[in-house]
Specification:
single chain; 620 residues; alpha+beta; Ribosomal Protein S5, domain 2; 4 domains; nine-stranded mixed β-sheet; 21% strand; elongated
Length: 620
């Protein structure tokens, strides 16, 4: 029988570090939270190599004297709770006293601190490495505290192997900083990476001003305010209109008493508030702030303090749902149309002014004109090279059944029949397939009826064709005459740089266009022909890359990107199809592998057998 033994202290600390310190961003989170508890007005974060080599957090808070500094690296040493009752009324960001000890167990760490109001020579320094704490020594230091962490996981190589690329780790640091800087907008933040200042956030008067620093003015200025107060709970925040919804929920931020959290109660209320305003595949963007009595929420339910438990979650859910719905009902959600100067030609130049006048006139003429003929669905050519014409006027789809009656006969339904003539015409031949509700295609065989989701099937066809084309080289791209621009965050810009080679294979060419934006120089021809909005697609692709970007499987990430492209290019539910298009879709279905599901796993076809029909009609 194995012998039970007590673990040594250094191993206990490493285990604790594994729960609290997952990656460099975890270190930044813990150090910044401690700084915020110290009553700071400004915070400087410096990292090197995505935080692998160096993380430094300097604050101008109250500082620590020599006696407190001696205990800084000790496990579970804290000034924020004294009794058990304090644990259930947490009003600070940190409280367990394990962050510094956990960091010191897996890195080289140093703290330099000087109490506020003390002379310059009153500072002290203490170092620790791999859990070993060195003696305290006096140093000259500015007021406040500076914590420096070097060579994270130097003594746990297995953990170090799990860290991702520099850009990925830095992106996680930016996300953590957003979760800390947004609720503490009155604190000035700076972030420096590899010697370059990436974020300089002055103290802001309100949340919207701070949101501009992270999301850009275009999005931040479109956000809708909401607020509500009931008894001991105050809610407020900003949310994007439905048209600004994103492809994933990573743009949803929830804060409880200034702490960034993940919570199903809050996220479900947000999603329900937008029900009926968004496509099922889209997610609203929102910043939700909850202020409540600390006794009503338990923040000590997760090692990294990112989950909470509410005493009355159902009441909070109802309050948030009502506040957001009320704000959405009062808001003007109609999109606005604006014409700006060409991104490549600054306003003020004669040619730029002429281009603006030309664009405005073209837009006015468009709205005055009759709707143009609807573009037909473009099917990718099959392996034999056959394809439909690129463009033609849509023909009526055989989706309606008109009644006709002949002498001595009863009323019958004839697909796509003409108006009744004086002489009875022979019955029209039964079509091979019909379209229902401009969304589903119904076709029959000898033993079954198949109901096909036109979007899901077309999505699979395009996906398989894109994969085939990609095996021969980069996808065909179209150079854009006027490159659209879009604002991106620093982490998104790093993500685009990291995945530049993959984007080139997809036919996407992006160039930097100022400190907070990129310009789209080339766009996949397939998407351009289908008039897929450029900026909207790039934002959705960014969400896909961010959600799956930590994967080491490059092919899996590429597959996700191709699935997004196929979804955007495919015919949509509600698009009418001509008989020729229906037949082309069914023909390609027989040529495509894995045609039973779309790239996202949804079924493309439901089959109702003749035996099942007879059973339902009680004929067996």
């Amino acid at each position: 029988m194995p012998e039970i033994r007590l673990l040594p202290t250094h191993l206990v600390n490493k285990i604790a570090a594994g729960e609290v310190i997952e990656r460099p961003a975890s270190v930044v989170k813990e150090l910044v939270e401690n700084a915020l508890d110290a009553g700071v007005s400004s915070l400087d974060v410096t990292v090197t190599d995505g935080g692998r080599k160096l993380i430094s957090v300097r604050d101008d808070g109250v500082g620590m004297d020599a006696e407190d500094l001696k205990l800084a690296f000790a496990p579970h040493a804290t000034s924020k709770i004294v009794s058990e009752e304090d644990l259930f009324r947490i009003g600070t960001m940190g409280f367990r006293g394990e962050a510094l000890a956990s960091i010191a167990a897996v890195a080289h760490a140093e703290i330099v601190s000087r109490p506020r109001g003390s002379p310059p020579e009153a500072g002290h320094s203490i170092r620790a490495e791999g859990g070993k704490v060195h003696p305290l020594r006096p140093v000259a230091a500015p007021e406040g505290t500076t914590v420096t962490v070097r060579d994270l996981f130097f003594n746990t190589p297995a953990r170090r192997k799990f860290m991702r690329t520099t850009n990925t780790e830095f992106g996680h640091i930016v996300d953590q900083l957003a979760g800390l800087a947004l609720p503490h907008h009155r604190v000035a933040f700076t972030l420096t990476h590899n010697g370059r200042r990436t974020h300089d956030l002055p103290a802001a008067e309100n949340i919207r001003q701070r949101a501009r620093d992270f999301f850009g003015a275009e999005l931040a200025d479109s956000l809708i305010e909401f607020s509500d107060r009931e008894q001991a709970i105050a809610l407020y925040g900003l949310m994007a209109p439905p048209l600004a919804a994103r492809a994933s929920a990573r743009w949803q931020y929830f804060f409880v008493n200034g702490r960034s959290v993940r919570d199903r109660v809050l996220s479900h209320a947000l999603r329900e508030a937008y029900r009926g305003l968004l496509e099922p595949s889209r997610a609203p963007m929102a910043l939700v702030f909850v202020e409540m009595d600390p006794a009503l929420v338990d923040v000590n339910v997760h090692p990294a303090k990112v989950e909470v438990r509410f005493r009355s979650g159902h009441l909070l859910h109802s309050q948030l749902l009502g506040a957001i719905r009320d704000a959405l009902n009062k808001a003007d959600l109609a999109p606005a149309v604006t014409i700006d100067a060409s991104p490549a030609e600054p306003a003020g130049r004669p040619d730029a002014d002429e281009r603006r006048r030309s664009l405005k006139q073209a837009l006015a003429d468009f709205f005055k004109s009759q709707p143009p003929p609807q573009r037909v669905l473009d099917f990718p050519p099959s392996r034999t090279g056959a394809s439909l014409p690129a463009e033609r006027e849509m023909q009526p789809s055989p989706t309606t059944f008109e009644r006709r009656q002949t002498p001595g006969s009863s009323v019958e339904a004839v697909p796509g029949a003409s108006p009744p003539a004086e002489a009875p015409s022979p019955p029209a031949p039964r079509p091979e397939a019909i379209q229902l509700h401009n969304s589903y295609i119904v076709t029959a065989t000898d033993q079954a009826v198949a109901i096909i989701d036109q979007h899901a099937l077309h999505e699979r066809i395009i996906y398989e064709e894109l994969k085939r084309r990609l095996s021969d080289g980069p996808l065909a791209a179209q150079r854009l005459l006027i490159p659209p621009t879009l604002e991106v965050s620093e982490s998104e810009k790093a993500l685009l740089a990291e995945r530049a080679e993959m984007l080139q294979r997809l036919g996407i060419d992006l160039t930097e266009f100022g400190p907070r934006s990129v310009a789209v120089q080339k766009f996949p021809s397939l998407l351009a022909e289908r008039k897929v909005p450029v900026a909207g697609f790039i934002r959705d692709l960014l969400d896909v890359l961010a959600e799956h970007g930590s994967s080491d499987d490059a092919e899996a990430l590429l597959s996700q990107a191709l699935a997004t492209m196929a979804c955007k290019a495919a015919v949509k539910a509600g698009d009418p199809l001509s008989g020729e298009e229906i037949q082309a879709l069914l023909s390609r279905r027989r040529e495509v592998q894995r045609a039973a599901t779309c790239p996202h796993g949804r079924p493309t076809t439901l089959t109702l057998t003749l035996a099942e029909l007879e059973r339902q009609f009680k004929r067996t």
